[in-house]
Design brief:
There is one protein chain. It contains nine helices and 15 strands. It has 336 residues and is an alpha/beta fold. The chain folds into two domains: 153 residues, ATPase, nucleotide binding domain (Nucleotidyltransferase, domain 5, 2-Layer Sandwich), CATH 3.30.420.40; 143 residues, Nucleotidyltransferase, domain 5 (2-Layer Sandwich). The strands form four sheets. A six-stranded mixed sheet has the order 3-2-1-4-7-15.
Length: 336
């Protein structure tokens, strides 16, 4: 397999980890997709041991490289987790995960291992193999526990330049006395529901989506969510001159309930930008992380003069060699 250019892609979430062997053209090798519970609240010893056991079979297939999409805050250059106080992976804080994972995965010392921000890996997967393929200027947004984002031009990550917020991060931008992280997320959706139905606040987002087919109030909440999204994103879409907004994350599984309102809202503001559901909601980050880790593949960011603003980490073997890839940011915010 190694001779054919396969890489192992891993999308690390707080409650589930997805992994697969991916070809250089983004195809999942048949029979290799895995999903497992990372036991992220347990000790580093337990977490790392579980990773080693769960990924053992895929590693034995001989991938040329390993790419890991990790939530922030994280030092993507050095492979050091800075997650603390978020109820997940607390015991990995400050650890050299490049060295730890080489050990538990029994990787050769010359096997490249690359860390990427999870929203960035998702964006790369969709830009090269999914809904945004062939589009020039794309804003990818992940909607889940928070609002993750990545801007791409011609398939490459951009972190500064025309119409970009600092670092390409939407989550901290202000919106009507709050932030985009609060309104374009599970919290924002459930806040709209609580406002509409104060006596019924025990539903989660998935429950609300299931209810929308028979409850007009629930359906209206999703419509309102799409309207808020249009209002919040329109200035950013305009400034960036985006050809498309691609929506991923857990809430994207209910995109049919709010994307029409998002499209209407953008059109009402004179924008022709397409609003698209991610083509591979569950697997885009796996694909993006895997292919970005291959030594002969480079998704080069534009505008990377500053080394602290690029959420695409270097490909690093255990011996410290770095392949011809761009500099990367030290930390990034938590993403859904």
């Amino acid at each position: 397999m190694a001779e054919d250019g396969f890489a192992l892609g891993v999308d690390v979430g707080g409650t589930s980890v997805k992994a697969a062997l991916i070809t250089a053209d983004g195809e999942v090798v048949p029979g290799t997709f895995r999903i497992f519970d990372p036991e992220s609240t347990k000790s580093a010893h337990v977490i790392l041991g579980h990773f080693g056991r769960a990924l053992k079979e895929l590693i034995q297939a001989g991938p040329r490289a390993v790419g890991l999409a990790f939530p922030g805050p994280f030092d993507y250059v050095r492979g050091i987790s800075q997650i603390r106080g978020l109820g997940k992976y607390d015991d990995l804080y400050g650890r050299d995960l490049t060295r730890d994972l080489h050990r538990v995965l029994h990787l050769g010392t010359d096997t490249p291992l690359r860390f990427l921000n999870d929203a960035v890996a998702f964006g790369l997967g969709e830009a090269h193999f999914g809904a945004a393929r062939g589009l020039r200027r794309v804003l990818c947004v992940t909607l889940g526990t928070g609002c993750g984002s990545v801007f791409l031009v011609d398939g490459a990550v951009v972190t500064e330049g025309q119409g970009l917020p600092p670092h390409g991060w939407l989550y901290s931008l202000p919106y009507k006395g709050s932030t985009l992280d609060e309104v374009l997320s599970r919290r924002g959706l459930l806040h709209l529901w609580a406002s509409a139905q104060p006596a019924s606040t025990d539903l989660d987002a998935a429950d609300l989506a299931a209810r929308a087919s028979m409850d007009p109030v629930a359906a209206a909440v999703f419509v309102r969510f799409g309207e808020v999204m249009a209002d919040a994103l329109a200035p950013i879409v305009l400034d960036f001159a985006a050809d498309a907004v691609v929506v991923g994350g857990r809430l994207a599984k209910s995109a049919h309930l709010f994307l029409p309102a998002l499209r209407r809202g953008l059109a009402q503001r004179g924008l022709t930008t397409a609003a698209l559901q991610a083509q591979d909601i569950d697997g885009a980050a796996v694909r993006g992380a895997a292919v970005a880790a291959l030594p002969n593949v480079s998704f080069r960011p534009h505008g990377t003069e500053r080394t602290d603003t690029n959420p695409v980490g270097s490909t690093t073997a255990l011996n410290g060699n770095r392949h011809d890839l761009p500099n990367a940011e030290r930390t990034a915010p938590d993403a859904p």
